[in-house]
Amino acid sequence: MALSANLFLRQSQSLVMTPQLMQSIQLLQMTHFELNQFIAQEVEKNPLLEFSSDDGELGSGNSREPEEDSRGVSDDGRADDAAAERQSGELASDWYESGGSGHTERLNDELDSNFSNVYPDDGPPQRLDAPELVSQWKSMPGNTEAAERYELDDFVAGQISLRDHLNQQIPFALNSRVDRMLAEHLVDQLDDAGYFRGEVAETAARLGTACAEVERVLSALQTLDPPGVFARSLSECLAIQLQQKDRLDPAMERLLQHLELLARRDFVTLKRLCGVDEEDLLDMMSEIRQLNPKPGSNFETSNTEAITPDIVVRSAQDGSWQVELNPDTLPRVLVNQSYFARISKTGDDYAFLSECLQTANWLTRSLDQRAKTIMKVASEIVRQQDAFLMNGVSQLRPLNLKTVADAIKMHESTVSRVTSNKYMLTPRGLFELKYFFTVSIGAVEGGDSHSAEAVRHRIRQLIVQEAPNNVLSDDDIVDTLKKSGVELARRTVAKYREAMNIPSSVQRRREKRAMARVAGF
């Protein structure tokens, strides 16, 4: 069979992800901070993009358009203005030389005032108070070189770390240079919570000293601020804080040695081990709750960032909800068409400017489409969760991405990108858009399904309202929820309860009965 070349005409469809389409998708899921960074980079690269001011005009600070002479005066007028300025300048200089310069003392005598600070450059140079400290004292009177180098940032207090805070106290707690060197080595073995995570024997062997010396220095360091620092366990941390308050008696020591029993609310065993009654045991527990289990947490270097909502929901006069985009999060970018029209007439770099114009138009369209998409998704969420906005968490409806996507005629992936790292400010508080999407829990006998968040809220309310003599078990909570129309398994109730850090019914019963007996009920 002979081989031959043939031509075929075939029609097919394919989805092509262009770079601009991929960038538009990335813009949709960017946060406010990331979007501002991206736009700033684009404005830096593109001469046709400019930030707009609050009044809608082009920002003068970022404008690349050449300034035009709009004064509208003739050459003779400019000459007349220049002559008037020279004349006024000569008069001013004559007055300055006759009555100002060199005559500060005369003005002081005649007006009985001190004019030495009015003309600081006229008087003799100020004598330095302490020339030997001129390099250290920047604000010394007469130090003109330091005045030029004056920066306000030098006087702004910085955030001190736990290590710096401890190193400032070590010279007052330890006198020996060897002890201070050993203390600095122990400081390096602290974790973020202020606990000592090293081994005494290993540290002693590494430094070539005895374990007793390391223990002595460690005991001295445990007296530093914050109380409880350099502890090797939770019980030791609490014991150090109680010892500094002079509240570490033998009963408290035995209680700290059995913290696992305290976590299980085994009050009967604790009363027997500590030799106290229920009232004293509850007082000891109250003192322990006032202690700080992580003394080094106040020195964390992480910065707290405020959340700026992307959508603001307000109640309208007709009873509906008014959904708006937060103007503080909307980027203000304009395309300078006049600059492109004027520069393109010259013919130089026309291809480069055409590409910049295309990129600028694409960016503005993408930002507009991003705002419209966020608005659509937010409006649909508000419509679906109207009962939540009116009555609270108990009325939160189950919602998924597909429901919102079908309502606004978009894909689920688009809705997922919109709801990522976006926040909505409502009369009920500030919520992430992902908060409104919860798992659906079936109802009894085909009723309306319930939201998982609403069910967790219901479980929390039942436990808070329970009486000391009628503590609800997980089975009791299942029966109560079933009567209210919620079909939930016992293991799911236990999972929700543990996720909310709520103890079991046995532990709650022990604690509430003990508190009730002490209160006299």
Question: What attributes characterize this protein structure?
Answer:
single chain; 521 residues; mainly alpha; Arc Repressor Mutant, subunit A; four-stranded mixed beta sheet; two-stranded antiparallel ribbon; 23 helices; 8 strands; 5% strand; extended
| Count of strand segments | 8
Q: How does the helix and strand content classify structurally? A: mainly alpha
For the biggest β-sheet, the strand order reads: 3-2-5-6
> Considering DSSP H and I runs of 4 or more, what fraction of the residues is helical?
40-55%
Radius of gyration: 37 Å
Approximately what portion of the residues adopt beta-strand conformation?
5-15%
Overall 3D form: extended
Integer average pLDDT: 79
**What distance lies between the first and last C-alpha atoms, to the nearest angstrom?**
104 Å
Low-confidence stretches: 55-102
Q: What is the makeup of the main sheet?
A: 4 strands, mixed
